[in-house]
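[recover] target loaded
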């Protein structure tokens, strides 16, 4: 049904509408369409974000990509969803509506980890809140269908991608359907969608019906229960797949031909030719069998009612995520099936260069006037050099969406973008705020052997240790840094993306280069925790790697004559985390002089492995049974608040809660005035709720000595001054990708 051969993005014959040329901005109104000479749009993209014509924003990247194929693309940005009227502003699209929630999952965008509504929206002019609905993909698709019942509806982006099968929804605290039946969409594009999007558009333009297009990798659709593309397809029940590996037993390489029929004329004494099957032939047969195998996951009804089956389905889903060996998946929803084709083939370097080299205006649409859009202010001087992440952190959505295979741009393409920012972006002062991606230092890293990569089924290339087949050479990144900062007019290049420090320590030269030239005083890294229990459920390295990196960081900072600090990120209430684990982390923070400002509580996002742990209390990193490991989960608001309080042990508002917890844990030895104590017994006036005695007046002016302040922000802040890295948003549901981009490294 699908093929691993990938047709290059630039090999298609352009659609006839290329004669209209390049639009200065993709039109958002009829007047703009008239000015371009268009009577209709071929594709209309609907997005929950403000339209910014820059490759960091999904609607712009997808729109310009389709424009380069010769299609007329319009944009409906942040429509009024209360009626279908606003979805008619550009008329009916000739080919399809492309529905996205925007760069962020709409639920992560609108709600905190405590399910409280946020007061602003970084992707909206002037950060105005409430400009998008909950579960925006479903709402937008339904309104588009109401506006034009006969139009094709295609959904995509991070929100649709992470809801392509039945999933636990944290905000409603229940298992929900795949987004496909809820949205009534014709097709869902998941992951990095350029290949499927371009081929789909050309096939629809040639007159194919969307309901007949069932062979595109990276797509999902509804089908009648038991539907198969052809008779040769075989279905395998996922519950028969106990461990990663092939569905069928490997054929015996010395197996003989089948026995002759009983009516054969071969006599008992006759010579029989025995054909030995070569290894190459056997592997080819096995590969062909896999290509026509679909794995049936437990149905929506089963995973809704049985936590063990939910955890099992999550495990199988993640094991079938490598484009080189993934099989199609199918999951029943009532009388119909949700069918998922294998993931898309990653883009080549040449294709990445093409996508990022399109004629973007690199600015917000003029209709916004002087309004400030925080997300744009944050990334306007930054550059995305790669996508994907092989870290496999269980709480992060990058691997479920972008995949584990790193897709990198060429050095020349990146340097051209640096020059474009220098020459075309208003307000540029000579400082590039970031050259990175989901993780700053995975540029051009890949498996040493493509054959091994295509057959690998590991969930992470770096956990529990760095795979011996992984190329961890930082030389290409070092070369890029040196050439970029040598460009005329470039004063400073900072690294704002999160850093994978367990990789960095393998290259002291890279750490020296980074620390000497590309740190603006602070560098973000993500240990996430200090204790093995939660780290094993996160698939994160231990603190030994952090300590080694810190030693290098301090050494090279001193050699460069700079006072610089690491900004560590930590998560409270992650599955597998006990109160004792959080206490140990608090003691580690105190010992190392960290006073965290804003901290993050675990937010269960759809499809993440950690979310499966949180919902089921099972560990899908191993075979799931009713007797398998039980994972500690923090659900109650009070305990979540307590675990968060341990990260801010220095805040007097948290002291009453921490005193109560320490007494219950039998650790009253940590309450007192000494350096060995975690919190004092006294309470400052006007803080907390304790009736304990206040601190004596004579000591009131004494304050604990401040150390380097570690911050964690959940929304973009204003751009940093030259020489300082701008804070970046960090959410599990905000990956960097054509339909949704994330800055900062969760992994």
């Amino acid at each position: 049904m699908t093929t691993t051969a990938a047709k290059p993005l630039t090999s298609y014959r352009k659609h006839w509408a290329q004669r209209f040329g390049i639009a200065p901005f993709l039109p958002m109104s009829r007047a703009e369409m008239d000015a371009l000479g268009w009577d209709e749009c071929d594709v209309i993209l609907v997005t929950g974000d403000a339209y910014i014509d820059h490759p960091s924003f999904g609607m712009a990247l997808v729109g310009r990509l389709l424009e380069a194929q010769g299609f007329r693309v319009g944009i409906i940005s942040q429509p009024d969803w209360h009626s279908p009227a606003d979805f008619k502003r550009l008329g009916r699209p000739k080919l399809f509506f492309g529905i996205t929630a925007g760069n962020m999952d709409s639920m992560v965008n609108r709600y905190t980890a405590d399910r409280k509504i946020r007061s602003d929206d970084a992707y909206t002019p002037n950060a105005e809140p409430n400009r998008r609905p909950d579960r925006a993909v479903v709402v937008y698709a339904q309104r588009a269908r109401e506006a034009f019942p006969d139009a094709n509806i295609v959904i995509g982006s991070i929100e649709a991608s992470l809801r392509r099968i039945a999933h636990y929804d944290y905000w409603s605290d229940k298992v929900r359907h795949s987004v496909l039946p809820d949205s009534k969409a014709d097709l869902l594009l998941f992951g990095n969608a350029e290949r499927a999007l371009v081929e789909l558009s050309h096939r629809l333009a040639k007159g194919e019906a969307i309901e007949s297009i069932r062979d595109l990798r990276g797509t999902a659709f509804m089908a009648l229960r038991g539907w198969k593309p052809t008779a040769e397809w075989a279905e395998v029940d996922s519950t028969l797949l106990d461990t990663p590996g092939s569905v069928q037993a490997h054929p015996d390489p010395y197996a003989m031909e089948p026995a002759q029929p009983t009516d054969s004329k071969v006599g008992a004494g006759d010579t029989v030719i025995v054909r030995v099957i070569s290894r190459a032939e056997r592997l080819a047969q096995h590969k062909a069998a896999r290509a026509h195998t679909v794995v049936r996951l437990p149905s929506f009804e089963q995973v809704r009612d049985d936590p063990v089956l939910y955890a099992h389905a999550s495990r199988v889903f993640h094991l079938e995520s490598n484009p080189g060996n993934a099989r199609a998946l199918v999951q029943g929803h009532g009388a119909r099936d949700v069918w998922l084709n294998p993931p898309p083939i990653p883009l080549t370097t040449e294709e990445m260069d093409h996508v990022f080299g399109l004629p973007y205006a690199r600015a917000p649409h003029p209709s916004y006037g002087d309004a400030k859009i925080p997300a744009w202010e944050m990334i306007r001087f930054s550059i995305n050099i790669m996508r994907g992440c092989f870290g496999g952190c269980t709480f992060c959505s990058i691997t479920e969406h972008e995949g584990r295979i790193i897709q990198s741009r060429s050095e020349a393409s990146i340097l051209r973008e640096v020059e474009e920012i220098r020459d075309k972006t208003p307000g540029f002062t000579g400082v590039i705020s970031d050259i990175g991606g989901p993780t700053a230092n995975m540029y051009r890293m890949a498996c040493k052997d493509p054959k091994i990569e295509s057959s690998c089924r590991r969930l992470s290339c770096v956990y529990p240790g760095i795979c011996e087949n992984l190329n961890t050479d930082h030389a290409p990144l070092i070369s890029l840094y040196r050439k970029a900062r040598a460009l005329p007019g470039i004063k400073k290049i900072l690294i704002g993306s999160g850093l994978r420090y367990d990789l960095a320590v393998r290259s002291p030269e890279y750490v020296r280069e980074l620390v000497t030239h590309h740190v603006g005083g602070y560098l973000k890294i993500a240990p996430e925790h200090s204790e093995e229990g939660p780290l094993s459920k996160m698939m994160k390295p231990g603190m030994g790697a952090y300590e080694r990196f810190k030693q290098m960081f301090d050494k090279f900072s001193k050699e460069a004559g700079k006072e610089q600090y690491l900004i560590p990120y930590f998560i409270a209430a992650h599955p597998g985390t006990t109160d004792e684990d959080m206490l140990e982390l608090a003691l580690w923070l105190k010992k190392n002089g960290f006073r965290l400002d804003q901290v993050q509580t675990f937010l269960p996002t759809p499809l993440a492995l950690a979310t499966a742990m949180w919902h089921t209390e099972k560990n899908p990193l191993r075979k799931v049974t009713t007797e398998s490991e039980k994972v500690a989960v923090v659900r109650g608001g009070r305990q979540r608040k307590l675990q968060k309080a341990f990260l801010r042990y220095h805040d007097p508002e948290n002291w009453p809660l921490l005193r109560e917890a320490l007494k219950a844990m039998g650790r009253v030895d940590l309450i007192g005035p000494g350096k060995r104590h975690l919190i004092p017994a006294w309470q400052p006036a006007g803080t907390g709720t304790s009736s304990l005695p206040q601190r004596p007046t004579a000591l009131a002016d004494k304050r604990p000595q401040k150390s380097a302040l570690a911050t964690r922000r959940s929304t973009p802040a204003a751009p940093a001054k030259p020489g300082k890295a701008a804070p970046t948003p960090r959410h599990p549901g905000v990956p960097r990708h054509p339909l949704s981009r994330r800055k900062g490294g969760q992994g």
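[recover] notes: Residues 193 and 218 are 7 Å apart (CA to CA).
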